[in-house]
Amino acid sequence: MTVNRQWVLAKRPHGMVTRDNFAYREAAVPEPGDGEVLLRNLYLSFDPTQRGWMEDRESYLPPVGIGEVMRAGSVAQVVTSRHPDFAEGDLVQTTGGWQDYLVASPGSGVMGLSRLPDGVPPTLALSVLGVTGLTAYWGLLDLGEPQPGQTVLVSGAAGATGSVAGQIARIKGCRVVGIAGGPDKCRWLTDVAGFDAAIDYKADDVDQRIGELCPDRVDVFFDNVGGGILEAALNHINMHARVVLCGGISAYNATAPIPGPANLMNLVVMRARMEGFIVIDYMDRSAQAVADLVAWMEQGLLHHQVDVQEGFDNIPDTLNRLFTGRNIGKQLLKIADPE
Q1: 270-279 pLDDT, tens per residue?
Q2: Residues 272 and 322 in one domain
């Protein structure tokens, strides 16, 4: 334990993020002060929002600076503790970044520092019971307000957040249609996740298929994609529909601004609402969401997929998987096993 391997942001991306946007470096292992713990990262979380953090622009979090360790959520193990609430060997969740070791304390970073509940594996803590699951829960229920018998449309439906949002809609008694890329992902949505139907945006005319599969129109659209998919969905919204803006992955790597939907007046005509949100605004209510998510999993009502890559050297390439459609469900990378 003498070297701390790190991946830092070397240059801001223009277009698709690549390995060249990052640089490998080695630093000394930090020493914890009073009230702090030294952590060793075990698993890293990869999320589309990381692409936005690389841009030098105002957002809900400051951008990652050039030369700074790339920001990422992680599950880590306590190596040394100088905090009374944490012991050596504890598994914790934090914003560990792309590095082997870090010093943290409760309240530090985006996610603070919290001990994993007994029996919860790192992969579950970073997926359906982590930020992605909480995002799906609060976005759908708080903004989408689905009612039994209504039609819910989800884009990015085979992803970590979209798949959970769609299943929660089904649990709440809605008819659910998902939009995903490729036959395998669409098949998983209907055969495993219990969606009523799926649209393959790579092969289908999305606008036409929404009309065919949603004859009573769309009451809730949970959008992770934006762009043309958002425009197609707005063509089919119902009276008083709710459009939940969770993400816009279609534009994250664009080299020029993506044109906005040309049919925003449909929101006026249908007296609909379109609203964005950030999950960090709900973190003080996370216990409620986790309790429901755990209960649904125990009842066999909620399914999820985890894509785990391995190896510190593969960290930059693993982020790229999110934007090329190679990941299946929640994208993670394992650095090490707990000791």
Answers
A1: 999 999 999 9
A2: no
Q: Count H helices, E strands: the chain?
A: 10, 15
Cβ contact 177:206 at 8 Å:
no
Looking at the fold, whether 65 and 188 belong to one and the same domain comes out as no
Clarify whether residues 100 and 157 are in a common domain.
no
Each residue's pLDDT tens digit, 281-325: 998 898 999 999 999 999 999 999 999 999 999 999 999 999 988
Residue 295's CB: how many other CB atoms inside 10 A? Answer: 11
pTM over 0.90: yes
Q: Which two tokens stand for residue 154?
A: 């989800």
Please name the residue that has the structure tokens 């065919």. 212
Residues 223 and 314 in one domain: no
Q: Is residue 64 part of a domain?
A: yes
Task: State the DSSP string of 47-100.
Answer: -THHHHHTSSS--SSPPPPTTSBPP--EEEEEEEE-STT--TT-EEEE---SBS
